[in-house]
């Protein structure tokens, strides 16, 4: 009996010594502030005919904050934040709702129209990776954590949309790999965000000839080396310089975060290094699919009138669903 008691104490101590960390990524669809800088999309020029005003801005903040509050991630990567002010306003709105993120950062070294950012309950250091001097490319945000004496490198991405060819997304992927070569593939690395690429982009984009200017090579599959990750995380054997796309660790019908013309797509991805697999909580990857985020069969995106100028209705959330996974440190 005494032996069993000692084992129980040791087991409880082991559990208390570990931390479950929920990490999420969410493209919030154009969270613009109300300060005119000249970089805005036309429908987001403050106090114009588009009705991007205090009322609609507040509704947008509250709606996005509701989603983030319901997720309650420990660390959340965000895409399509216009400015530090917009990020601060979102953070304040979340605090009013009872969710406080002490640490935050936005990749604002370059004046792109929208940027990537992070909200976190854990402290981190950060730097920006400049993909190109061109404003057609958004900077990648790197955040470095130390959680329970475990170092974690996080790279937050928002790659070029499919209004541009695959060579533009490859440019972002190559910049990312250049940095990872410097820090080492043996590190705990998580690469996440809106890649504007499916987890099997190398198969799907072949049907879209205008995108294929790279002879079939894709950024997400070939440059990041996630091709043929068809097994679940527990039985996977990776080379040291390969990465694992967590979408393969859930049912195929659940692998989506976006719906385009009725077709489900997984533009938002969470990709991890071989070293991080041992920390990953199996089958925890999923997109957040609460009923309020849908309108009929479509994602309930932020609503604007189709006629020009596009006018804000003050309804909806984002055209993307959040994606999250859990890790044990």
Summarize the structure.
The chain has six helices and 16 strands. The chain is of the alpha+beta class and 329 residues long.
Features:
alpha+beta; Deoxyribonuclease I, Chain A; 6-stranded mixed sheet; 26% strand
Structural account:
There is one protein chain. The protein has 329 residues and is of the alpha+beta class. It has a single domain (21-328), classed as Deoxyribonuclease I, Chain A (4-Layer Sandwich), CATH 3.60.10.10. Helices cover 22% and strands 26% of the residues. The protein contains six helices and 16 strands. The chain has helices spanning 2-16, 54-71, 84-96, 166-183, 201-204, 219-223, and strands spanning 20-31, 75-81, 103-106, 115-120, 125-129, 140-147, 150-158, 189-194, 243-245, 258-260, 263-265, 268-273, 286-287, 294-295, 298-299, 323-328. It has a six-stranded mixed sheet with strand order 3-4-2-1-16-13, with helices on one face. Strands 5-6-7-8-12-9 form a six-stranded mixed sheet. Strand 14 (294-295) and strand 15 (298-299) form a beta hairpin. Helix 2 crosses helix 3 (84-96). The chain is globular.
Task: Produce the secondary structure layout.
Elements: H1 2-16, E1 20-31, H2 54-71, E2 75-81, H3 84-96, E3 103-106, E4 115-120, E5 125-129, E6 140-147, E7 150-158, H4 166-183, E8 189-194, H5 201-204, H6 219-223, E9 243-245, E10 258-260, E11 263-265, E12 268-273, E13 286-287, E14 294-295, E15 298-299, E16 323-328
Parallel strand pairs: 1-2, 7-8
Antiparallel strand pairs: 1-16, 2-4, 3-4, 5-6, 6-7, 8-12, 9-12, 10-11, 13-16, 14-15
Helix pairs in contact: 2-3
């Amino acid at each position: 009996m005494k032996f069993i008691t000692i084992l129980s104490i040791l087991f409880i101590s082991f559990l208390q010594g570990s931390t479950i960390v929920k990490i999420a990524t969410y493209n919030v669809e154009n969270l613009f502030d109300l300060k005119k800088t000249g970089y805005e999309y036309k429908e987001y020029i403050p106090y114009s005919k588009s009705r991007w005003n205090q009322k609609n801005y507040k509704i947008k903040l509250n709606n996005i904050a509701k989603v983030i509050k319901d997720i309650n991630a420990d660390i959340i990567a965000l895409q399509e934040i216009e400015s530090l002010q917009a990020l601060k306003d979102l953070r304040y709105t979340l605090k009013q709702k009872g969710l406080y993120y002490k640490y935050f950062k936005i990749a604002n070294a370059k004046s792109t129209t929208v940027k990537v950012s992070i909200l976190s309950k854990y402290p981190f250091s950060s730097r920006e990776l400049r993909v190109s001097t061109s404003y057609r490319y958004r900077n990648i945000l790197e955040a470095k954590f130390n959680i329970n004496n475990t170092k974690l490198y996080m790279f937050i991405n928002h790659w070029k949309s499919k209004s541009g060819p695959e060579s533009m997304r490859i440019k972002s992927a190559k910049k990312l790999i250049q940095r990872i070569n410097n820090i080492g593939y043996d590190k705990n690395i998580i690469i996440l965000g809106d890649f504007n690429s499916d987890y099997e982009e190398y198969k799907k984009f072949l049907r879209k000839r205008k995108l294929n200017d790279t002879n079939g090579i894709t950024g997400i599959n070939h440059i990041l080396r996630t091709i043929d990750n068809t097994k679940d995380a527990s039985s996977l054997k990776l080379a040291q310089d390969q990465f694992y796309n967590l979408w393969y660790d859930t049912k195929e019908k659940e692998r989506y975060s976006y719906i385009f013309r009725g077709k489900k797509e997984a533009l938002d991805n969470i990709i991890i290094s071989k070293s991080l697999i041992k920390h990953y909580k199996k089958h925890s990857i999923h997109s957040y699919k609460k009923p309020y985020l849908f309108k009929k069969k479509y994602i309930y995106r932020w609503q604007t009138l189709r006629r020009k100028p596009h006018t804000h209705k003050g309804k909806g959330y984002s055209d993307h669903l959040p994606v999250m996974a859990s890790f044990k440190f």
